[in-house]
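Fold this sequence, please.
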Amino acid sequence: MSDPAPRQPIHDYLAELEDIPGTRIFTAARARKGYWINQFAMSLMKADNRARFKADERAYLDEWTISEPAKQAVLARDYNALLDLGGNVYFLSKLFSTDGLPFAEAVSTMTDMSWPEYRQMMLDGGRSPQGNRSIKGGY
């Protein structure tokens, strides 16, 4: 029996996933980085917290141990920035819902497409893999 191929170190493997255009893999490192963003988002599951947030977003955010760039991203609804800062799209969906946005419409704001264009692209089978497989390789 031959020896199995040596395993790639996990951090090297996870770093390769960063090469997928438009994709942020929710790793343990991202979870740690975005812990308070995600806790804030999950707090919006409670009606009284949603009401407090909607009444004064900044004051509510200031109750959380969230960085200023993350607070600004929440206020601007810059979901891509929130993902880069460790937010998880499923936790952030609580913010979408608080704003009255369906998940797919909110996700469309993370693309270079309008909601109708994004919806049609998804109905047509999704984004082509051509040009969307590698940042470094350009394919």
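The first helix runs from residue 10 to 17. The two ends are 38 Å apart (CA to CA).
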